Amino acid sequence: MELPPFPEKRPRGKIKGIKFNKKEREGEIIFKHKERKFYVIRGEKTYGKYDTMVEAYYIKKTLMEHNWDESYIIQTKTKTEKIYINQKIKKATPKINIKFCPKCGNKIKSNEIICPICGINLYEVLNIDNIVEK
Fold first, then answer.
1. What does the alpha-carbon distance between residue 76 and residue 65 come to, in Å, rounded to a whole number?
2. Are 79 and 112 in the same domain?
């Protein structure tokens, strides 16, 4: 068995062109501090502004998969809106970080709202606005 002839000029080192023009091929995500928004930019064109990095990254990946066609952005926006609508908001009482009543000095358990001795409402004394009644 004969081997093929050894090439005279062979490439050495890393393959060129992998990182060349990466911003033009993949685009980039930029955060603008004044607006507090993330932008997906490719060249001079922007593809929307987003509140979180996750949303911007998801949009960028879907655009890359579909050759930067803007019609797919509308489909992904409706999907993310449905996700946010279906999330349930958990309501809970804020925890009180004091161990003793500020009026009478009685020891208070972590789950008590009203002092058992003096009858004072601890949320009103501490000026907590997020009061959720049980």
1. 13
2. no
Q: How many distinct structural domains can be found in the chain?
A: 2
Give 46-86 pLDDT, tens digit per residue.
Answer: 988 888 888 898 889 989 998 988 888 877 666 666 656 55
Per-position b or e across 22-38, b if 16+ CB within 10 A of its CB: eeeeebeeeeeeeeeeb
Question: Which residues span the domain enclosing 71?
Answer: 22-86
Q: Is 124 helix (H, G, I), strand (E, B) or coil?
A: helix
The 10s digit of each residue's pLDDT in 106-126 is 888 877 878 888 888 877 777
In this structure, the answer to whether residues 133 and 118 fall within a common structural domain is yes
- C-alpha dihedral, 80 to 70 to 37 to 82, nearest 10°: -10
Same domain, 95 and 57: no
Contact indicator for 107, 100 with CB cutoff of 8 Å: yes
- Who contacts 27 (Cβ-Cβ below 8 Å, separation ≥6)? 40, 41, 42, 43, 47, 60, 63, 64, 68
